[in-house]
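Batch queue: ligand-bound targets. Current item pairs a single chain with guanosine-5'-triphosphate. No template structures supplied; prediction is de novo from sequence plus SMILES. Inputs echoed for audit trail.
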Amino acid sequence: MASFPFSFVVPTYNEAGGIERLVRATCEVFAKNGLDGELIVVDDNSPDGTGAIVDRLSAELPVRCLHRPGKLGLSSGVIDGWAFARPESLALGAMDGDFSHDISIIPAMVEALASGRYGLAIGSRYVPGGGISNWPKRRIITSRVACMLARPLTPINDITSGFFLVKREALAGVTLDPIGFKIGLEVVAKAHYGKALEVPYVFTDRIVGESKLNQKEILNYLKQLGKLYSARLFPRRGTP
Ligand SMILES: Nc1nc2c(ncn2[C@@H]2O[C@H](COP(=O)(O)OP(=O)(O)OP(=O)(O)O)[C@@H](O)[C@H]2O)c(=O)[nH]1
Ligand SMILES: [Mg+2]
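Prediction returned. Tokens below.
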């Protein structure tokens, strides 16, 4: 699939403890599977020096760092990273920088898009074969409720997944306006991707670094859902 170039964006804020391992392992998945993949790390001037680690790695691996001046948010990081991606990439993706997402499904995601059958491949915890290895019950319930709330918008089971790859052409002319963490929800609701494939994977909670998810992000998710529902119900009043 060397003829199907793609770029995955990894937004980071204070991920120095694990970013080198993530970049090396992901680039190894690209190389071992003959994939023409590029990694874009979008770092928001992390005080722990995450950006400098990525700059060093870019001398030997297909990774580049986009440096932003301060903490500007996960979703805007993904959007800025897509704009920074090399123009030849036919697909653009997003992945967390804390190794929660299983990079071994990347070849299946690329294959789905390269085959022409799907315009979106989404790493999914909530289809057979997927799961969550080490989350407390409270967090599992929150995540399931969050997905249920979006069900009238989409048949996709894992709508809050932050791990996906979408055809670049599916984003053409689409205004993405995410409020919080959930760039995937915005893409699923607005992009023109045709068919989507959920690729199962088992989510692993971060083992290094600190979570940036907080109550505010849960509220942001509800606000974002509200905006998407009102755009569906009242198309002329909604965002273009
Ligand atoms: N560039 C940038 N990246 C961010 C920002 N906030 C979070 N991130 C990154 O986005 C990814 C997801 O954030 P996490 O803190 O792992 O959020 P989560 O996965 O929902 O929650 P935990 O896994 O419990 O930590 C990680 O790679 C973070 O470093 C931000 O403001 N700017
Ligand atoms: Mg995480």
